Each structure stands twice: as structure tokens, then as C-alpha cells.
Amino acid sequence: MTSKHTAEYLPEVPTEISSILQGGYNHPLLREWQHERLLNKKMFIFPLFISDIPDEETLIPSLPNIKRFGINKLIPYVSKLVSKGLKSVILFGVPLKEGVKDSEGSAADDPQGPVILAIKALKLAFPDLYIMCDVCLCEYTSHGHCGVLFEDGSINTKQSVRRIAAVAVNYAKAGANCVAPSDMIDGRIKAIKQGLIDNDLAHKTFLMSYAAKFSGSLYGPFRDAACSQPGKGDRKAYQLPSGGKGLARRALIRDLNEGTDGVIVKPSTFYLDIVKDASIICQDYPICCYHVSGEYAMLHAAAEKGIVDLKSIAFESHYGFLRAGAKLIISYFTPEFLDWLDEPTPV
Ligand code: PBG
Ligand code: ZN
């Protein structure tokens, strides 16, 4: 006889449970103990966009909470972050004045241009702040590409490398602690290192190569902020295709051999395997990942739609970078993390 309360099949109650993992993470403190590494303020590098309009302070619509500053507005803004524990920034110059851009990106290292003025002002105001400079020409070239071009629009490698090395050396001369070339044009690491050596700057300048930089769809908001959209074409001939794992590994090895002091992998979320590869190939070097503008904007958009909680997803994504092997993170979330890391961790 069957009743509706009696199942036909009753499994035997197991007498031996072989493994209970939950004993290891049932308390918030335990959950932090389970992390191989925890986020801390020192691993964050904050991108700053600096224009040549001295009094500018403009929100970038596609990059929530991020502003572009003129030199006169920069120090008060950074001051608040330094008092919360900001240790490092990476500078991007944005020439907005008419007639500044040319085919060689001459304005990149103009002594009166935004980057060199900002290096000097930041050093004076915050002697302990670690100042990194993105080195590229795309913000300064009339065509919007990262190097110097031949007439047919292809990259003139020798001229590009010469120009990029000169810009890097001039940033270091102005007092930059670190120069980070993001162009991906072959040969520039060797040329920059040699330039730093020739100018007696190599012993006090960190050369951080964007060694594995992929071209793709995640840089749009940055290009709005930096006005660096290429006029014609794209960057696919000098930045890696998204499936190019082997190319990334070769670029990492090549840049180590050319004398880089550290490497950047960019973007981050969709390239965690490359971060992991870098942590093995470059295990004796600081490895940085760049959570780029599109990744940041996507998380904000998802939070606005109610799909995710912003703070939780920011921690989850940044813990992913640590798991993959990153030691440093360039992140637009830095100001938030300077507050969040004073609060209980959401684990
Ligand atoms: C300049 C540069 C870019 C980024 C860092 N350095 C833009 C680009 O390559 O188009 C992108 C960073 C971001 O999207 O946040 N070459
Ligand atoms: Zn560029």
C-alpha cells in the first residue's frame, strides 16, 4: 500500500560523510583566511587624466565618477585621496587646445604640456606619491595612432620607437618615478631602457611595459576621456588579437629580455589566463593588471540596472586579479577602495 507521504524510494542515510568543507568558511574571518592574498591600498594605482586647460574639471559621461582635470584643479583633488592612503597614480595627458596635435605627437613631452607640469606639481605637493606616466603618442597625434605612421598608414617602427623613447626619457627627467609605454610597438622597451641608461636615469626610474595589451572593445570610455580615438583604422596591427595567447607570452618574454622592470596585462577580466601566464613567465617581476575603462563602465552599468551590487562586484573582480597572480592593479575604482578597505570586507 502506498500513501502520498511515502516516497517509493528512500535513500539510506549516509553514515559516513567523507568531507565537510564548510567548517572552513562559515565565519567572515575564516573566509578572509581562505584568501591566498588580500587586497590592500598599496597595490592600487589610480589613472589621472590631465588636460591643457588649466581650470578644467569635467566629468567623463562614459566613465562614472572620473573627471579630467586641468593643472590648477589637480592638487586639491589628489590631496583628498592621498590623505585616505593613495600611494600611486598613472598620468595621461589630454591636449584639448586647437592646433596642438601633429603627425609625430610633439606635444607629448612639451615642457609646458599637461604631463610634465603635472609630474612637477604632484612631486612638489606629495613627495611620497609614486608617479607613473603612461607613455604613448595617440593622445597627441593628429591621426590618433600610438606611433608615427608611414604614408600608407602603417606603423613606422624606427621613427615611433625613437619618438616614444624620447618621451619616456623626458618624463623621467621631469621626475616621473615610472614610465609605462602602452603603444605596443616592437623595440621600444630596449630603446627606452638605453635612453634611461644614457641619461643616468635608469637607476631611479622603473620601466613598466604594457607587454600584453590586447586590442578590443574595452577602451571606448578612455578614448572619450583622452580624446584619442584613431581617425582612420584601428590598432589591430600593433596591439594583440584577443585570441593571441602565444603572442602575449612571446611579448612578455621579449620585453623581459629587453630590460623591462615590470609588466602590465591589459585588459584584465577577460584575460585572466594571460595574467596567470605572466605570473609564471615573469615570476621574478611585479605584475600589474589594468582594469580598463570599459570593464569599469560595464560594472557600473550593471549596478545601475540592479544586476549587481557595485561594491561586491568590485571586490569579486579585483580578487580575481589577485588569484590569477597580479601584484598591482591599475583601477578606476581606486578612490572607492581607499574607503572600502577601511570597512569590513564583503566576504
Ligand atoms: C594609450 C592607452 C590607452 C589605455 C591605456 N593607455 C588607450 C588605448 O590604447 O586606446 C586604455 C585604458 C583604459 O581603457 O582604461 N595607448
Ligand atoms: Zn596609444
From TrEMBL:
Cofactor: Zn(2+)
InterPro entries (UniProt xref): ALAD, ALAD_AS, Aldolase_TIM
Keyword tRNA-binding annotated: no
Catalytic activity, EC: 4.2.1.24
A GO CC term assigned to this protein in UniProt: cytosol
PROSITE patterns: D_ALA_DEHYDRATASE
Annotated residues for binding of 5-aminolevulinate 2: 293, 332
Active site per UniProt: 213 (schiff-base intermediate with substrate), 266 (schiff-base intermediate with substrate)
GO BP annotations listed: protoporphyrinogen IX biosynthetic process
Enzyme class, first EC level, given as a word: lyase
Subunit structure: Homooctamer.
NCBIfam families found in the cross-reference section: PRK09283.1 (NF006762)
The name this protein goes by in its record: Delta-aminolevulinic acid dehydratase
